[in-house]
Amino acid sequence: MSKGKVLITGVSGDISKALIPLLLEQDYEIIGIDIKPPSIKEIQFYECDLSNVEAVEKFLLDTASLWIDEVVGIVHLAGIYPNQKMSNYSVDMWEKVQTVNVKSIFFLINNILKIGTESLESIVMVSSTAAKAGSKDPAYAASKAALNGLAKSLSLTLADQRIRVNTILPGIIDTSMSQRQSAERKEYHVSNTLAKKIGTPEEVANVILFLISNKSSYIWGASIDINGGMTL
């Protein structure tokens, strides 16, 4: 018997690839949105460009009636990391980072609530250690810090509707995103962890599964570091 549906943004990414089997094993159904389909086929996939808020609104207009009454969780995994220094940023690049990483999920949640759902129980925002420690890519770090603030504010706003909003802050994780960093930069990050190793997508996915499930029913408005002890 299905436990309900979980909407995942950035569903074609490496952490999603680890998360989807865990959710399926626990009898959740998956609705996934991204600019390209994931390799895992046992989901409802919809193409959606999160850098365009109008595309987000169209996605909901076209599909919400198919799943909104059964959605129990939302996981915001979508994010872009240009890995650019400050002097390389244009206004358009800055805006794209902020839109994909923060603006899109605000309007996605806002419009879902406007349409109306009584099934939604848990929202998990995927931020970054960069939100606390900073980054040589200032737009990325700023967007993730904004996501933390948004999650805290949504926790307060949605508490009366019994919707939990929690944030995870991964550190250096073995994904295609981290591959954009030089070997020296990755080694620097690993050396600053207590674990002295790079994290895996599965280690992040396990925490997301816990936060989506009722096993975390007394965790509200939390920010959870998953960074091997990089920040204490």
From TrEMBL:
Keywords noted in UniProt: Oxidoreductase
SUPFAM superfamilies: NAD(P)-binding Rossmann-fold domains
Molecular function in Gene Ontology: oxidoreductase activity
UniProt xrefs under InterPro entries: NAD(P)-bd_dom_sf (IPR036291), Sc_DH/Rdtase_CS (IPR020904), SDR_fam (IPR002347)
Family membership: Belongs to the short-chain dehydrogenases/reductases (SDR) family.
Protein name as annotated: 3-oxoacyl-ACP reductase
